[in-house]
Design a protein that fits this description.
Structural class: mainly alpha
Strand order of the largest sheet: 1-2
Number of strands: 2
Helix content: 55-70%
Shape: elongated
Order of helices and strands: EEHHHHHHHHHHHH
Radius of gyration: 25 Å
Oligomer: single chain
Largest sheet: 2 strands, antiparallel
Distance between the termini: 91 Å
Strand content: under 5%
């Protein structure tokens, strides 16, 4: 027998998939036997599909960075016990000019269970949204939900020291739910609808949870996500003027509302 790709080469081996004789250079070790290079290529997904998978795995850069920031802040608070005093958001501090708390509060967590549950939710939603939206839009969406969550917390509980990534995560949930609905997918026929409902029930039934923070983030995420995930937009690309502009406007409005609510409460 001679190799089907090199007729001048005598071989005693065959492809265990198609049965064609092939020389060692034209065979690739498989889990069972060896496959010829043509069978290997035929068994691979199309180039566009391989590229999509590669891009999807590489796209997760903002999500791990956010998880690292939250974890780092939690460790810092655990060792210094200064997180609540320096990062939490409440009306008096914001009114006194410490406006950065509207942002830093999103990286403060009260206990290992709190941070673990939020980071698990962030990772799962990041897998769903970041490859679709791209890094820039996903980051803008996250910040809009975070700031709106802080604004909602000041409106609902102006004197409570609030923290946590829940506002931003509810923003991601709201964006995913509205985005699916706008694209013709019934959210209640997916796993996302029940998850959102369960989280809302938990928000209103367990004491100590920031209702305003969760609802503020959810509202912002629904607005921004509805624009970013509109049916006419091309997903997987960072550049979307209208989507990014909506996230910026919502973020600015959240800060303005938070400052106004803080001034009214003090």
């Amino acid at each position: 027998m001679t190799c089907y790709r090199h007729p001048g080469r005598v071989t005693g081996r065959v492809c265990t998939r198609c049965g064609r004789p092939a020389c060692p250079e034209c065979l690739v070790q498989a889990s069972v036997g060896s496959h010829c290079v043509d069978c290997v290529r035929a068994g691979m997904p199309p180039a566009t599909e391989r590229l999509r998978r590669w891009n999807a795995t590489r796209a997760l850069m903002v999500t791990p960075a956010l998880i690292a920031l939250n974890a780092g802040s939690f460790v810092w608070d655990l060792t210094t016990h200064q997180g609540t005093a320096k990062l939490s958001v409440y009306a008096a501090a914001v009114h006194d000019g410490e406006w950065w708390r509207l942002f830093t509060a999103g990286f403060l967590h009260f206990g290992i269970l709190h941070v673990a549950m939020n980071m698990f939710a962030l990772y799962q939603l990041g897998l769903l949204l970041e490859p679709a939206l791209g890094r820039l839009r996903f980051g803008a969406l996250y910040i809009a939900g975070l700031l709106a969550g802080s604004a909602g917390a000041i409106i609902a509980s102006p004197f409570a020291r609030t923290g946590g990534a829940s506002g931003a995560i509810f923003g991601l949930l709201g964006a995913a739910a509205v985005g699916l609905q706008r694209r013709g997918v019934n959210v209640w026929k997916t796993g996302l609808g029940p998850i959102l409902l369960i989280n809302l029930v938990i928000t209103f039934s367990i004491p100590g949870i920031s209702i305003g923070g969760h609802l503020g983030g959810l509202a912002a995420g629904g607005i921004v996500g509805g624009v970013m995930l509109r049916p006419t937009v091309r997903l997987g690309r960072d550049f979307d003027v209208l989507g990014l502009a909506t996230a910026v406007v919502v973020s600015v409005l959240a800060v303005v509302i938070a400052l106004s609510a803080a001034a009214s409460a003090v």
